[in-house]
Amino acid sequence: MKLTIFSVCSLILLQSFVSPFGIQSIINFISGSKDILFGVVQNAGSFLPTPSEIFGNTKNLIAGLPFEYVSSSINSVCSTLMSSNSVISKITPEVDSMYFQLMTACSKYSIPLLEPEGLLKLKAFNVTKKTVILVTGWRTTVSNSQTIEELSKAYNCRGDVNFLALDAASYVDTLFSWAALNTAEIGEHMGENLVRLAKLVPLENIHLIGHSLGAHICGVAGRTFNKLTSKLIPRITALDPAKPCFNEGESLSGLMRGDAEFIDVIHTNAGVLGKKDATGDVDFYPDGMVSLPTGCLSVVCAHDRAWMYYVETVYPGNEYNFMAKRCTSMKRLRRNKCGDEAEPMGYAATSNLKGTYILEVKGKSPFGMNGNETLEDQHVWCGTCLYAGIV
Ligand SMILES: *[C@@H]1O[C@H](CO)[C@@H](O)[C@H](O)[C@H]1NC(C)=O
Ligand SMILES: *[C@@H]1O[C@H](CO)[C@@H](O)[C@H](O)[C@H]1NC(C)=O
Question: Which fold has domain 95-385?
Answer without folding.
Answer: Rossmann fold (3.40.50)
